[in-house]
Amino acid sequence: MNEEIRKIKNRINENMMKIRKKIIILSNKGGVGKTALTVSLAGIFSLKGKKTGLLDADIHGPSIIKAVGLDGEKLRASDEGIFPLEKGNLKVISMGSILEKEDSPVIWRGPLKTGVLRQFLGDVIWGELDFLFVDLPPGTGDEPMSVIQLIGNVDCGIVVTTPQDIALLDTRKCINFLKHMQVSVCGVVENMSGFICPHCGKEIDIFKKGGGEKIASEMKVPFLGRVPFDPRIVENMDRGLEFVLEFPNSKAAQSLISIAEDIEKILEISEK
Predict the structure, then answer these.
(1) Distance between alpha carbon 182 and the CA centroid of its chain, in Å?
(2) pLDDT bracket for residue 169 (50, 70, 90)
(3) What is the CATH number for 249?
(4) pTM of this prediction?
(5) How many helices (H) and strands (E) does the chain have?
(6) 183: domain range?
């Protein structure tokens, strides 16, 4: 093994040993609200007083920095390592805080992407954390495989889907990917599950409903819950505001809080 690679692996191992639970969030296709869910869950845990890390592993489409209201801030480094951006109990790392301009494309092949993921996991000073949430890019290719292999002991994977049939086919692939990589499946979240009309109050199933629960049952993995489509989630992400904090009584916020509680229970049971 190359000496430099060996040193990086040792640094990653040292960092990961300080983090109690490592959670990856994935989907096999884009547009299902995976990043919104990741940001919301990390925000809920940090608001509960948990020391929480948020790693944006989407090298080509980093959006988490803006979603948490830290856009424009750049990473600092010292001889000790790279300092993540911080917001309360939340520590965040993303390519978005490295790019010279936010609209600069990342035109990299696999080895360069793996290299930056090694740095995010090994050179970043994460410190002692209760939870690390990793927002993976869509699919089951280079980045998801690299993150799982680099972390070495991912505690669980959460699969995000929308209810329509084409998304559910991709969900099966994601669950099988996690099983192949020997990562425990924490559960399936059905996102954009219904829409409450702000004018009449009637619930409209834009993308059908119930498919995520059906797939979870068929694949014998937990179903974590449904999150209805709420335009305010998108609006708050664009403004860098915490949706659950702004609209705690909304149906979507209550669903997200319930999902976070279930995840914590599942992780606690796995410790016993």
Answers:
(1) 19
(2) confident
(3) 3.40.50.300
(4) 0.93
(5) 10, 11
(6) 3-271
